[in-house]
Amino acid sequence: MDRLKPSPIPKIFPEAEYLVSGKKQIWYEEMKAAYQVPWMGVVTMAFAHYEDFFEVLWKGLQPLTTTVEFDLACDELQAIVEKQVKNLQPENLVDDLKAKGFGARELDEIRGLIEIFHRGNLPYFLTATIARRLMEGFELNENQEFQKRSETKAVSEKLVLIEEHHATSEVRSLYQDIRQTLDLPFVNTDYRALARWPSYFSDAWNGLRPWIGSDEHEGICLELHEAANHLVSSVTPNPGRLSRDDFSAALLQNQDILLTTRLFQWLLPGLITNVAFFREAAPQNKRLIFTDIFFRRFSIAFVTECPSQCVSRNRGTDSKILKSLEKENSSVVAWITPIGTNEIAIPRNRNSPVKSSAIKQPSKAIMVQWYSSIATP
């Protein structure tokens, strides 16, 4: 299936979360929970406008979305975009932002938000790829064997979006430039969320803008497109037995649905690339502070009981532990457990794990191989 930009760009009719009720509201909540994200993607809100289509799609897709294989497919796409965006060598914005008065907390909030979209866009991209393949007559992998995800994290984050009618003139100008540059009639959620920090977002967008439409940028998008198609056609299982035959002839012949699937399956690789560019332009400090998104990413492969004598990073009592971990460099295996959104617990003695009852807030712990390159604020 070729990468295809529909021309002209079709009109879409996304149904916002606060406007839906009944079955659609249930589907929205189920999808966000399965994808472990705090927002409903524009792509699936646009699909929801065609209720019969969305119902069949989600019924068949839902069993896949809570599998280990689905998460590993997202991992593969994430690894591709992270590797390729580094080749674009985005300018590091951190020093300039600090000079403008951005403090550590603000920078951490920006980075944390970027991480949410960096990971969260991937399941929506796979969804759009599956939907387009079915509409165009390409079937999915017939394999139905799968491994259930060990744990699905509840997501409590609430995104603050700067809508155009509330935005400053500077942000409205940015939105207009984004629409024109990307040739889209709307501004994606990611950009409206990052616009909470107008001076940051202006710098980030202006750094990215020259790359839009370049051979290098399009090359990354094409690689993501090809990888997603390979994954859903040959790698990820199909436990829900989702098939083109599940859709009525009327749905399959609906040109508005077809064009909507093509639009989002084309634009999402670009959005994924752009967010990865923002991420690379605000590199993480080499500190052992992790977000909930980090825990969801690594909880698949490494789950165990919580160790004893843990301390919270935010209480500032574990600086010696952090220094000792960093001295041992990449050979260290640290046992940690999430306490809050930006907190972790680290054992004083990682060689003496005991039951999780030793912690006031017992939780499954995660074993993470320490590499400075994966440390996130």
Give a written overview of the molecule:
This protein has 14 helices and 5 strands. By secondary structure, the chain is of the alpha+beta class. Strands 1-5-3-4-2 form a 5-stranded antiparallel beta sheet, with helices on one face. It is globular and about 60 Å long. The C terminus is likely disordered.
The helix/strand class is alpha+beta
Q: Based on the structure, what is the oligomeric state of the protein chains?
A: single chain
What would the average pLDDT be, to the nearest integer?
80
The succession of helices and strands, N to C, reads HHHHHHHHHHHHHEEHEEE
- Total DSSP helices: 14
* Helix share bin: 40-55%
Question: Spans of 5+ residues with little confidence (pLDDT < 50)?
Answer: 286-377
Strand content: 5-15%
Please give the number of β-strands: 5
Largest sheet: 5 strands, antiparallel
List the strand order in the largest sheet. 1-5-3-4-2
What's the end-to-end separation, in Å? Answer: 39 Å
What is the CA-atom radius of gyration, in angstroms? 21 Å
Shape: globular
Question: What's a quick, concise take on this entry?
Answer:
Helices cover 50% and strands 6% of the residues. With 377 residues, it is of the alpha+beta class. Helix 4 runs antiparallel to helix 10 and helix 6 packs across helix 10.
